[in-house]
Amino acid sequence: MSNILMIVTGANALTMKDGSEHPTGFWAEELVTAHRDLVAAGHTVTIATPGGVTPTVDAGSLDPSQAGGDEQARELAEYLDAIADDLAGAVPVADVDAADYAAIVLPGGHGPMTDLAFDANVGRVLIAANEAGAVIAPFCHGPAALLAAKLADGTNAFAGRTLTVFTDEEERTGGTGENTPWWVESALREAGLLIDSAGPWSDHVVVDGNLVTGQNPQSSASVARRVVEALAS
Q1: Contact by Cβ (8 Å): 117, 108
Q2: I need a labelling partner for 43 at 20 to 30 A (CA). Which of 33, 104, 118, 183 fits?
Q3: How much is the pTM?
Q4: C-alpha to C-alpha distances, 107 to 17, 55, 110, 139, 233, nearest whole angstrom
Q5: What are the C-alpha distances in Å from 227 to residues 89, 97, 103, 152?
Q6: Bridge partners (DSSP) listed for residue 7
C-alpha cells in the first residue's frame, strides 16, 4: 500500500471582489470522501497545510441543505471528529519531501483560492511529484493549487495538460457568484492548461497521465476511485 499526501487549505476566509471577507475553508464532502476511501483501500494518508495550521472546515459544507441532508451532514461531521487528531497534526507543506509519497491529493473548498494557489512550497511539492510520476489529484477548487507550480522561466509546470475544475459557470450559479475575486477555471486556462468540463454539477473526472482531476464535490468519490486504480497499476 502507498503513502498519500493530502494537501489541504489552511485558509478560513476568502477576500471577495468588494473587499468583504467570505468565511471558507475545506469542503467537508471532498476531504472526508477522499480520506475515507483512500484509507479504506489500505493507503496511509498524511495531511499537510501551509504552515502546519489546523485546517478549517467550511461551515456551509456541513449545512444539511448543502451536504445532502441531515444524515449526510451528521456523517461528515462525525468523520471529521474521528480524524481530528490528524487534522490538528497537519505537517507544514514546507517540510514535505515529495519523494515520500506516491500520490498528492488536493480537495477543494474556496480556501485554496486564498493560499494554495500562491504558495511556493505547494508549487515545489507539485513540481517534484510530477517529475517523479506520482499521482496528482486535485478536485473542485483544488486545482487552483496547480497555479503555484511555476517553473524557473515563469511558465506553469502543467501547461498543456488536460484537466477539469469547478467551472466558472458553477461558480457563478452555485458558488460565490459575481462577487468572486477571481475565476479558477479562467486562471488555469490563462496559465496554459486545457480544461475539459461537463455540465454543471456532473460527476466528471479527467485523467491525463499521472494527473487525475475532478470537477466538483459530486466528483469526490470518483476521484478517489481513480487514484486507487492508478496506484494499483
Answers
A1: no
A2: 118
A3: 0.97
A4: 23, 12, 10, 6, 23
A5: 24, 20, 8, 29
A6: 48
Q: How far is 107 from 38, CA to CA, in rounded Å? A: 13
Tell me how far apart the alpha carbons of residues 50 and 218 are, in angstroms, rounded to a whole number.
Answer: 26
Angle among Cα 44, 213, 114 to the nearest 5 degrees reads: 85
pLDDT tier at 157, thresholds 50, 70, 90? very high
Q: How many CB atoms lie within 10 A of CB 179?
A: 13
The string of pLDDT tens digits covering residues 65-100 is: 999 999 999 999 999 999 999 999 999 999 999 999
CB 211 within 8 A of CB 129: no
Q: What domains can you pick out in the chain, each with its CATH number?
A: 3-232 (3.40.50.880)
Cell of 31: 476531504
